Amino acid sequence: MSTCYNPKTMDELGQALSQLTGRSLILAGGTDLVLRLRSKHLEPDALLSLSGVPDLQEIEITPERASIGAMSTMARVNQALDGLPDLQALADAAGGVGSPQIRNKGTIGGNAANASAAADLPPVLWLLNAQAEIMGPGGARRTIPVQELPDGHQGNTLAVGEVVVRFVIDRPPLKGWRSAFVKLGHRSQVTISRIGLAAALLQEEDGTVRDARIVAGAIKPVPFPLPAAEDILRGKRPDPALAVELGETFKGNTRRVYKENAAKGVFQDILLRFQ
Amino acid sequence: MKLDFFVNDEAVSLETEPQRRLLDLLREDLGLTGTKEGCSEGECGACTVLLDGKAVHSCLTLAAQLQGRHVTTIEGLEKNGELDILQRCFVEEIAIQCGFCTTGMIMSAKALLLQNPNPTPKEIRTALSGNICRCSGYVQIVNAVSRAASEMGGGV
Q: Any chain B CB within 8 A of the CB of A72?
């Protein structure tokens, strides 16, 4: 029988983190961990459940920043950010994960820390230059750019006894930008991404793109920017006719030929969002 | 671990393993077999219950996540011997074939109507997108939820 830690406050969380070993598991929403526990017959020496800490579920949006507790569910992230032009991509990604049941339990922290190559939120967190705030044993805090969270092998760079407690996105650098996320899966709902595309555009009043940022997910082990696609967009209107040229920028990034072709359609979908 | 939580508005106290699934707590420890085990992987939705009013998979929920929380199962919908409007509409619209997916479907629909009493057919389909019926009777199911909404005063 394993020990179970059920902290209720951030202080208790810090104390519980001190007790963890390399054989312990941290349970967020459980939509992935429970599957792994069962399929791999894992026998952790301790299970730390994050469900009872209200602070980890706090979402605070001000003009200066978006602070999103790591235990915020996909459903709540979608609800809190939907309609905010600069953060829309995060609402899109969270609102498209799995089914309603998954969105009611799966968390932003779990999605990012789990570091699946096919995860939908990491490319958006990269796009928006989110910072991940981490708590370690005894409650010690450190903050890293979200780009430093995955280890490149579908794992994360967190040390034993560390957990992501929240994500912070600075909003002033995003002033005037609009963002969107679209994904390609085998079906329209309850699907795993074969391509996830996150884009942010800064447009002139007539629609001309002054600046662009594009990050792709579900292609390589970690998200990656597409500077060639950003160059194509700058100085033009986001016309869906550019999709073919933009899709060509996927060449060399994936061994799967179908994804090179499918990328054109994904670009078309995302450009339609900026009309 | 000692687990104190609520099932269908009744306080329940259990001594259990933290890794035990809510699905097993309900079916094996509490005898509430209305909740079904389908895929055990969070894909089919047959095990759907409400956790604090939201639809979740009981197969992906562990005892370690339940302290103090409120679970509602299909058994909790009937009040004073009367079926919930959703249950009655599923029967009257013949939205049941083999019945295995039905409890999960009804719990997902219940979660929807709690949040949105006046859903569009598209919103109903999205709410049920995580519930699979292999007898393939989705039209009747969507009709049953629409009808329940209108009988409850919403109207589609």
A: no
Are B1 and B18 in contact by the 8 Å Cβ rule? The answer is yes
Calculate the CA B54 to chain-centre distance: 9
Q: Could you tell me which chain B residue has the CA closest to the CA of A102?
A: B56
Q: Which residues of B touch A190 (CB under 8 A)?
A: 43, 129-130
C-alpha to C-alpha distance for A248 and A265, rounded to whole angstroms: 11
pLDDT, chain A, mean: 95
Q: Which domain holds residue A80?
A: 57-172
For chain B, give percent helix, strand, coil, nearest 5.
40, 15, 45
Q: Where is the domain boundary, B55, B76, B97?
A: B76
Check: CB of residue A53 under 8 Å from CB of residue A10: yes
A141-189 per-position pLDDT tens digit = 999 999 999 999 989 999 999 999 999 999 999 999 999 999 998 877 7
The ipTM value here is: 0.95
**Chain A residue with the nearest C-alpha to that of B124:** A100
Looking at B76, B107, B125, the residue that finishes a domain is B76
What would the pLDDT profile of A203-226 be if each residue is shown by its tens digit?
A: 999 999 999 999 999 889 999 999
Range of the domain at B42: 2-76
A110 to chain B: which residues are within 8 Å by CB?
none
CB contact under 8 A, A104 and B43: no
Confidence of residue B154 (pLDDT cuts 50, 70, 90): low
